[in-house]
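Quick start: what a row looks like.
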Amino acid sequence: MNSLANLKKYSACLPRLAIPATVALIAAAIGGCTDKADSDTGRSERVAPVAVAQITTSDIELRRTFSGTLSARAEFVVAPKVSGLLESIAVDIGDEVTRSQVVAHIDNAEFNQEVNQAEADLAVAEAELIQARNALEIAERENKRVSTLLERGVASDSQFDTAQAQFLAAQAQLKVAEARVQRAESAGKSARIRLSYTRIRADWTEGDDFTRVVAERYLDEGQTVSANDPILLIVQLDPIVAVIFVTEKDYSRLKIGQQAELVTDAYPRETFSGVIERIAPVFRETTRQARIEIRIENPDYRLRPGMFVRTTVTLDRVKQARVIPEGALTVRNQQTGIFLLNEAEKTVRWQPVTTGVQQGQQVQILEEEIEGRVVTLGQHLINDGSPVTVARETDATGL
């Protein structure tokens, strides 16, 4: 075991030997090949090979990708306001619907009869009103005549009282007749409104006239429906909304109006643009996440509710930032820092740093005065002041 360990320890010396070396030669090499560090009394530190990269200055962005689902921006459930037999449905799933369009009919025979009855009742009430007005006119003339005769001493007080009572009764009958006319008119209006409800319209009230699409059909012709039973679900697909949920860490960086890029498995080679439209003011207690809605223009209806999307949002941008490869970061004594290369002495210096925005394999460091090259590979072999040899130069990403 000790020989095997020695063989590994001094493997750097083996290339000096001929490949078809004998066991004796290997033993000789093990015994005779030692590091300079082992032979020196001070046991100086061994030179470590490292990879380095240049600290650069460039624009950098903090981008986050969130998973979400597409949802209709608005939904409208078509339901009747009256009960009856569903006579016909004019649209089906996938059909476009405009605002106030008639989409279904309920059998209206009974409702027409109600209108006819209300009109007949109104005619009777109006005839009674005419009769009451005539009666009031006659009673008024009689009351005036008796009053005149009373003044001349021809009529008695009882005759006057009788005429006065008839006049007052005629006034009351007129008011009753007028009330009956109003009631008949109101009943007629109600009957006509109920009749109009047999023509079921797509009357959404969001204040827009966008064309919408039938998403669900719950009933068929010939079925009996009650008031408020759903018949159709109509959705708005243009624009469409992507719903994502974010944690507290990213929530403060999101703003209404921020641009977003979305991809979906349905169109893997395409990227869709959107804008953050709504940000929930509260977090869900169960997940500690807040709902974010992103508006996406969808004129050709290619994007559909229920599709899975991946949404990328740029949370922050820094121009002319000091950038290093992510692989250059290392931790010493619970502190994040980098190893800077001393070009003249071929040693490294430990430098604590504060990181900022990260984009891919690149990380911003906030210390503006730091320059030069940093170690990206081999940090486990070195400490502050260690001698090194540059084995490889990497690019800005550390590759």
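That is the whole record. DSSP finds six helices and 20 strands in the chain. The longest helix spans residues 109-152.
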